[in-house]
Design a protein that fits this description.
Oligomer: homodimer
Number of helices of chain A: 12
CATH architecture of the largest domain in chain A: 3-Layer(aba) Sandwich
Number of strands of chain A: 11
Distance between the termini of chain A: 47 Å
Chain lengths: 323, 323
DNA sequence: TTTGAATTATAAGTTTTCCTAATGGTGTTT
DNA sequence: AAACACCATTAGGAAAACTTATAATTCAAA
């Protein structure tokens, strides 16, 4: 019996969904289905009643679930206690982060961490989202700070915060004088943007499409810094994460234009390898950033109420439109 | 993390030996070594100190072990509770047994069980040791009653009892008048015996060899009943399990000759599939036979004392010489 | 110290298990 | 009823675990 199978079953019980559980564990829905089937087979008991939607637990399933929560909790605490013996709060802590986080959050975080744990040597390496993920998988970095965090078989992702995306333009741009614009004011404009292969760009496109706004992205780049410079040089405009343009906005090099109907955020997250849990230092660093213990995301169960969320649920962890 | 890995680690901690733990779990020593290595890797801590013999647990290993005992115990109880929900005390209970057990123990056991659980239909099928094992693996029988029980990857074996092996002969045989003989009195005799491929025969051979007795097994059979008849027809002698010759010994058709120096027993055991635990009925039947709950064998730890056992430890579960 | 017995580690290859992708079937909703 | 969201099933491929064979240790005895 795989320990993971038991965790998955618990997740199913909590979320009342095979597919949701599959997602947070970074495996396919099929894998989850088979795992549960095998579990039921071995116990010789039906644990889940699939004849209803959303699914419900049988009484055996309910007993099993509440027992497991207790047991798995104990196991995790035990493993944590035991493995912390070999994990000192000294040595190097390699962290990989995307550029924007590196510029905006890391300096403060490193300083704060150095005060708390002076014996840890935090090493930071900056790169694109993909590079960060690769670094973590390869073990070159213990923690990764990424956008659009997603769990996979190799990686555990923890949601951190949602960073606002701002509409900015050069001071010489048509929009520069306005403090607030309507979506239709943007229709047909030329802008500088991210490459269309990037997730952030796809999110922006989808929001624009839904608002009926056509933007002409004539110049595309794979990183935010180049976009900033292009906007300045070409006296153009674009959508950028707030952290990237904070300095330019403050010193007037760029103008931030509000457009309430188009407010967007991109999710930032912390990732680490699934196989070997992070070192003590890594754990503490992550917890410090989060302001809570560094544990995998778990959706709280909706308490009785059956109201639907206002936003598209399929985008829950991907983007959100700030009203 | 494999649940089995944790069980194996506990077994190692109990027995203070990789290879012993491997044996009771029916896997190779290599598999155990690799499993523990992986476990240590994932926890990032050394659990076992291999630089000493017998091995010892590190302090982390000790903490982990005592925690696991508790946790695994809870899990087993939970699984038992949950799975018992789907296991009724009715229906068929297919059991496979070797001939000798079938003749001697099963009739009484079936009767007793029928009294306790009248709704269970116990079906018995008799065959050679190998056939019984195959039946259990194939799922045709839920329980198997075998000699020389051994755990494997597919099968869990529980020791049941040690059946005495008797030296018997036809009433017309030279030995028939003696009630007690010395090993040397047997030297050079002709006998009827089991095929040399059978484990029981190999055990007998090894005991004879150690006593310096040469026996000429001119006729060999693959089952005890044929041997009984051959002994009678040929006015010969042979070694046979007690249960097999009980009737003949009682009615004088065969004579039992004591030979203290050559006293032997063969271990009998109950087996069942490792993958899906036996049904409630199977569990109860096995427990009734054993006189204790049907649980895998676990050797008690020698309490502090470091004395060596008198008998050859490698034969502990295989045979024993009754002093 | 060397030799031997017993035990664990390691390597290579095989088997088993698990997972993914694709697809089919079933409740729910519109 | 059609569309939808969800779970089951299947087949094939990827990963994990296991086995056999062999090397390296430890401990004990010569």
């Amino acid at each position: 019996m795989q320990l993971r199978t038991l965790e998955i079953f618990c997740e199913i019980a909590r979320r009342r969904s095979f597919s949701k559980a599959a997602e947070t564990h970074g495996v396919s829905q099929s894998a989850v289905s088979q795992a549960v089937h095998q579990l039921e087979q071995q116990l010789g008991v039906q644990l889940i009643d699939r004849s209803t939607r959303p699914l419900s637990l049988t009484s055996a399933g309910d007993t099993f679930h509440s027992g497991l929560v207790e047991i798995l909790g104990r196991y995790h605490r035990l493993a944590e206690e035991v493995s912390s013996a070999g994990r000192e709060m000294t040595g190097q802590l390699p962290i990989a982060a995307i550029y924007s986080i590196g510029l905006s959050y890391m300096p403060d975080a490193k300083e704060e961490f150095a005060r708390l744990y002076p014996d840890v040597d935090v090493r930071t390496h900056y790169g694109s989202n993909e590079v960060v993920i690769k670094d973590v998988i390869a073990g070159h970095a213990e923690l990764g700070l990424v956008s659009f965090p997603r769990s996979s078989k190799e990686i555990v992702a923890v949601a951190w915060q949602k960073e606002p995306i701002r509409l900015v333009c050069s001071p010489a741009h048509t929009l520069a004088d306005k403090t607030e614009v309507k979506p239709k004011d943007l229709d047909g404009l030329e802008m500088v943007g991210f490459e269309s292969s990037l997730e952030l760009r796809q999110m922006i496109d989808s929001v624009l499409r839904r608002s009926g706004v056509r933007i002409d992205f004539q110049n595309e780049f794979d990183n935010a810094d180049s976009i900033v410079r292009a906007i300045q040089v070409n006296e153009s405009a674009g959508f950028l994460p707030e952290a990237v343009i904070r300095r330019e906005a403050a010193n007037g090099a760029l103008r931030v234009v509000a457009c309430r109907a188009l407010s967007m955020t991109r999710p930032l997250g912390i990732i680490f390898r699934r196989s070997d849990r992070p070192s003590r230092a890594g754990y503490e660093f992550g917890s410090m950033l989060l302001g809570r213990p560094l544990e995998p995301d778990r959706e709280k169960r909706s308490s009785g109420s059956h109201r639907k969320a206002a936003t598209n649920p399929s985008l829950d962890n991907q983007t959100s439109i700030v009203a």
